[in-house]
Amino acid sequence: MVDVDASPAQDNSPPVFGATAQALAPLLEHIRDGCVFIDGDLRVGFLNAVARRDVIDGGDDPGRVPGTSVWEFLLLEPGTPPRIAIENAARERLPTHFTSMGVYSGRSVEIDVVPIPDGMVLYYRDVTPQFVAEQARAASESELRMTSERLRVLIDEAPLAVIVTDTAARVLHWNPAAAAMFQWTAAEVVGQPLPTIPDDEIDSFQEHTERTANGESVKALTARRRRKDGVTLDVQISSAPMRDQHGMISGNIVMISDVTAHRKLEAQLRMAQKMEAVGLLAGGVAHDFNNLLTAIKGFTTLLQMTLDESDQASEFLGEINKAADRAASLTAQLLAFSRRQLLRPEPLDLNARVRDLERMLRLLLREDGQLVLDLDPHLNEVLADPGQIEQVILNLVVNARDAIHGREDGTVTIRTTNAELRDEFSLWGVLDAPGQYVRLDVIDNGTGMDRSTQTRIFDPFFTTKEPGQGTGLGLATVFGIVKQSGGYVWVESKLAEGSSFSVYLPRAKGRKRTSGPLGLSAGGGNELILLVEDEASVRRVARRALELHGYTIIDAPDGPAALALIEGREIDLLLTDVMMPGMLGPEVAAEVLIRRPGTPVLFMSGHSDEIVRGGLLDPDTPFLAKPFTPKQLALKVREALDSAPAAAGEKKK
């Protein structure tokens, strides 16, 4: 047996082949593969034409090769897979085909070894083109795998929901952002029909699918999609068709962004714009309207004072006054929801305000349901206008009463708690203002509201009541007061289950503001008052009302005329309108104080927008809102005079 691991004897004598090799040699001389005969000692014998040419191409002499070791011819190092295969073929006497590539003369070759009775025949063929193609294919597949992996990472790390579907809208890929947005895991949805389509969006979804199937890309499509818990999200969708290697559409890749919060911000902006538009109208109307009401109420009251109470005309005048009061209330509501009223915030106990109103609230609900108070005994004080907060409570309770009307077990609950707001603002779609608040809830178990109604409840003049049953300003007024107070309103409601209105008011940090004089009567005096008012009817009624209380009045229709009147006079009080042509009331007051230092000033106005937004007056400045009655005017004048006794004493000297 031949020792295949031993080096053959280097006698360089040509090997002697048997009859089989000699018979095959002429047949193999001109085949296209290289062919080499190897004897039992693994020496090279016969080389066919291709093998001889390859030896020449390698820079060697084909005549020198016969008798040399096959390892020198094939250039195979010990331990390499091809050499081991040849050694095994020689030992086992079995044919061998090399599936791995070898390199000969700089080329890639494939080798077959076939044992014959007097040795072996070795075939080799040039597979360099195939090898290069295989390497290119392998490199392409590797790059494809890397690209696919990069794409997978990109999709899985994308902040947007990315969903890949086939042509039947079955889910092929569901990235983590989609799982977070819609609450279904990838394991739940992959291979299943897309589960996010609400019933009312099926038609639009099918239309979208058809557009993609026709090769169309869709960008920024507004739609609604359903979460696993049933909540419907407002979304924006962009999609593009996917194609296979033949260019045929094989599916769809969809990117989805949740724009629910954005839509809420848009709704807030629309609400603000509506408030601004109606507020501008309300403010313009209120100024002139309140001047007219001041004249109506003033002259009506003065006329009543001249009549006996039993006179029928006095009764008629009383009805005129009541109508004027209702008109003034409507104007006040317009200014409240448009946030153009003058608020005087102070630290107050919300629980105390609720208890003060309890008897009135129980009377309101007496025929419709029960009132339940759940007040936190450790409630912090809030910073708000006491009168306006009472109006908020009353309006919310009246709204709740209407909701429970006709129910046998109707209940309205008023609850107060301390609250800390952190990230609730993203849900509400408003600017962040985290901090400490006091929460007031008014809860009913009434009819509740659907989603479309909830989006409009704070709109001015929107009401679900029958015509003539409501103005639609109650909740709009609540919204305006709370917003102007630096707070928030949130509503939760379900049809047939009831509603919950939550008001968040900023917690008070300072000490309570000292109240003004209490219990004043509409007493008179003999002081000299300078009255400045551009509206002639208001000026006449104010002058007459104050003269009836003993005051001496000099009046002017504008600032320059007023300044001319004080030349050579010592006045005890300046009573001036805020908005006047030529010179504004604060400008008149500034000039008067330069000429008459220490003079008390009382401002009046039928429209506080110029005060609130323009910053014309400090909130603590003495102020009388129009419309007012003669008695209210007299009280406020007396209060202003008595609030500066030292200054008055100095002038008297």
Q: Kindly identify the CATH topology of the largest domain.
A: Heat Shock Protein 90
Put simply, the count of helices is: 21
User: Average pLDDT, to the nearest integer?
Assistant: 80
Shape: rod-shaped
Q: How many separate structural domains?
A: 4
Any low-confidence stretches, pLDDT <50, length ≥5? 1-11, 511-521, 646-653
CATH class of the largest domain: Alpha Beta
Overall SS class: alpha+beta
Strand content: 15-25%
Q: Characterize the biggest β-sheet.
A: 6 strands, antiparallel
CATH architecture classification of the largest domain: 2-Layer Sandwich
Relevant CATH superfamily of the largest domain: Histidine kinase-like ATPase, C-terminal domain
Distance between the termini: 147 Å
Radius of gyration: 49 Å
Helicity, as a percent range:
40-55%
User: In total, how many beta strands?
Assistant: 23
Explain what this protein looks like in three dimensions.
Residues 1-11, 511-521 and 646-653 have low confidence and may be disordered. The protein has 653 residues and is α+β, with helices and mostly antiparallel strands. It has 4 domains: 19-126, Beta-Lactamase; 158-258, Beta-Lactamase; 346-506, Histidine kinase-like ATPase, C-terminal domain (Heat Shock Protein 90); 528-652, Response regulator (Rossmann fold), CATH 3.40.50. The protein is built from 21 helices and 23 strands. Helix 10 (312-337) packs across helix 15 (474-484). Strands 1, 2, 3, 4, 5 and 6 form a 6-stranded antiparallel β-sheet that branches. It has a 5-stranded antiparallel β-sheet with strand order 8-7-11-10-9, sandwiched between helices.
